[in-house]
Specification:
By secondary structure, this protein is of the alpha+beta class. It contains 10 helices and 7 strands. A 7-stranded mixed sheet has the order 2-4-3-1-5-6-7, sandwiched between helices. Strand 3 and strand 4 form a beta hairpin. The radius of gyration is 26 Å and the shape is elongated.
């Protein structure tokens, strides 16, 4: 057993393989720590799957498949560099300054909590319902919605969600009140979006807004659609083509909070972030003791 272990340790091939795997795991870990958002994690996962498939195809001598996967990996890397510009910029800046341990600490981002976003939306819907002002609000639940799923994409806004802005958009005197508002996270992406109508047979009491809400949720699974009736002021919530109505504002808030509660992706990332902070703080303390003790000894001399 000792001879085998000694031979394994002295074999440079195994050592290099372990170093190679360790470096890949460390790089993957840093990427997951830096990019810890639910929507962007899917992109990182897809890129990792492509790399693993490329390595597997090479090991199986599938030359044509390996060639295609290599090109996809390169193209995906370029696309990720464009998508994650700020993250990569911060990574390169810290790497250039020598702040290696800071890469393991997830930065504190000042982003509105989902609870506050939900409160703003519910408050706006409540006011619109009381004043009998029609409204149509689309909310992304996971991955981004493709604009091709809309009949008309609408006007880009890219503004923070607020009840005042939502109420202003749906006022009948504005040019965008007839369309829908698209919300992604804490941002109002666009307004005046024209949605496809549902082809299902529905009650005659349902107007165009309700059919549009059913239509977009039938076509796109990763979204919710809130409807405020202009005639009755009733509140409805559509998901996967099913219309839940009528709702009170408190019931709407309960459903939204349940739907946008922390997902398994975020719960999986949380231990990684905590471990990163522990490793970073422990490493910094260790380096501080080592280099601090040396500097102190020099000062005493």
């Amino acid at each position: 057993m000792g001879d085998a272990l000694r031979k394994w340790l002295t074999d440079p091939g195994w050592v290099l393989r372990l170093v190679d795997v360790g470096l890949v795991l460390a790089l993957t870990y840093m990427v997951l720590v830096i990019i810890g958002e639910r929507r962007t994690l899917w992109v990182v996962r897809g890129f990792i799957i492509l790399m693993l498939a490329s390595v597997l195809s090479k090991s199986l001598d599938l030359y044509l498949l390996s060639f295609v996967l290599d090109k996809l990996v390169v193209g995906s890397a370029v696309a990720m560099a464009v998508i994650f510009q700020s993250e990569f910029r911060r990574f390169l800046e810290q790497l250039g300054r020598g702040d290696i341990m800071q890469l393991f600490n997830h930065p504190g981002r000042v982003t509105p909590k989902q609870d506050s976003v939900t409160d703003e939306i519910v408050d706006a819907v409540k006011e619109l319902s009381q004043n009998r002002i029609g409204a149509l609000i689309i909310m992304e639940t996971s991955s981004p919605i493709d604009e091709q799923d809309f009949s008309v994409p609408g006007v880009k806004l890219n503004a923070e969600v607020s009840k005042e802005l939502l109420q202003t958009i749906f006022q009948t005197s504005t040019l965008l009140h007839d369309g829908a508002v698209l919300i992604a996270g804490s941002r109002i992406v666009s307004a005046g979006v024209i949605l496809p109508l549902s082809e299902r047979t529905a009650s005659r009491q349902l107007g165009t807004r309700h059919r549009a809400a059913m239509g977009i949720t039938e076509r796109v699974e990763n979204c919710l659609c809130i409807v405020v009736s202009e005639e009755t002021g009733s509140i409805s919530l559509a998901e996967r083509g099913v219309l839940n109505r009528p709702l009170t504002s408190s019931k709407l808030k309960e459903l939204l909070e349940l739907r946008f509660s922390p997902s398994s992706d975020e719960r999986a990332v949380a231990p990684i972030r905590t471990l990163g902070r522990q490793i970073g703080s422990g490493g910094q303390a260790l380096f501080g003791r080592l280099f601090g003790s040396r500097s102190n000894s020099r000062d005493k001399k």
